[in-house]
Amino acid sequence: MLGALRRCSTVLPRSVAQFSNATRSSAVSKISRLYNPALITRSLHQTSQSRQQNAAVVEEEGLGFQSEQNDNAPITTFAELGNRKLVSKGVVQTLIKDMGLENMTEVQTATINQALNGNDILAQAKTGTGKTLGFLIPVLQNILKQDPSLGERSRGYAARRGNRTTADDIRAIIVSPTRELAEQIAMEAKRLVANTSVIVQTAVGGTQKSAGLRAIQRQGCHILVGTPGRLKDIFSDKYSGVEAPGLDALVFDEADRLLDQGFWPEIQEIMELLPKPEEKSRQTLMFSATVPHEVQRLVRQTLKPGFDFVKTVRDDEEPTHARVPQHLVTVNGLENTVPAIVELCKKAIADASQPDARPFKAIVYFNSTAEVTLASAALTELPVDEDSIPPPQNTRSRHR
User: What is the DSSP letter of 181?
Assistant: First the structure.
């Protein structure tokens, strides 16, 4: 993977081979933390041999990391962010008391510190590793740093009016490949900003554009989370009033999926509609499980030279799907699919009732809304024991 990055000289502009001997040790120190964050949790010290190996890797791959000296130990708990005055006290309290979080994940440890410094970051991280907070915390803190008045929660009339926030006060945009993921990110962001006056809005497909647009226009927006198509629609609508002249941060979550799903044209249009980086400096954070050529192209067009590369996926690590048992059952027609689903669920629920077994959950996808409606009605009306399979809707809605 990194060999592919080596071929993109415009992506990774500076080689450690160009550094002087005085700066080389600093660069190697940084690469030891970012290139292999697993070292963070295992040891805070490196042997001279490991430093030489890391230096060889850096020179071979041509990774252009900026050199900086940092003798502080890596931050591994959220409380340390407050103790070192890196993140506002209110946000730290929200993380610990309201969200019940204490220790950072590997991704969070590797990214938050660098992102708080304003660095552009390309992070290779899998889904489910805590990367959402890895970019939400720095984005929020940098907003509060720019406007400390947003650090206190507005009340009364000011809260209803969004503390005079307008639709063109967007400070951060988070681009997600799917509506579900965007809504999940927005929900996490709203929990994080609960004790501040920062306003989070969503702009996703599959919902009424007018409803989301009215919310932005009436309440204002600081952090906008959306899918590429809907973001393009809103920013290209000259009558919407939604603009981002003060944009400070742009986040691409699951960049490989964004490009796999064909959103490259929309992303290009969004970039054209946003302030030019040379006119308004901004931070760009990109998270991706893989870094194929398509992601490298996005890197070239979005990240500043000298960005940080954070890798939390080992080269020898199996993909998630390779470690999850998978089974295929072929059925023909909906008339056979629904009974098969019922039998599979009954068996799985019975297995889940055993001691120390994990709870059973299932997500069933159909090809169309009509099939979903039909299957839902069929599952609801089938004579299945209540303890065997729960209906897809509650009793009250069933009798309306």
Answer: H
The tokens describing 255, both together, are 């960049």
- CB 262: neighbour CB atoms within 10 A? 9
Q: Which two tokens stand for residue 218?
A: 């009436």
- Phi-psi region at 49: left, alpha or beta (left = phi > 0; alpha = psi -120 to 50): alpha
Instruction: Name the architecture of domain 78-320.
Output: 3-Layer(aba) Sandwich (3.40)
Contacts of 193 (CB under 8 A, 6+ apart): 140, 199, 200, 223
Residue-wise pLDDT tens digits, 296-326: 989 998 999 999 999 988 777 776 667 778 8
Sequence ranges of the domains in the chain: 2-61, 78-320, 327-398
**What tokens were used for 318?**
């199996």
Among 5, 10, 77, which Cα is nearest to 35's?
Answer: 5
Measured between alpha carbons, how far is 360 from 354 in angstroms, rounded to an integer?
Answer: 11
| Nearest Cα residue to 269 out of 223, 225, 237 | 237
Place of tokens 């072929």: 330
Q: Is the pTM of this model over 0.70?
A: no
Pick from 335, 313, 349, 382: nearest CA to 122: 313
Which residues make beta-bridge pairs with 285? Answer: 121, 251
Q: What is the pLDDT of residues 75-128, one digit of tens each?
A: 999 999 999 999 999 999 999 999 999 999 999 999 998 999 999 999 998 888
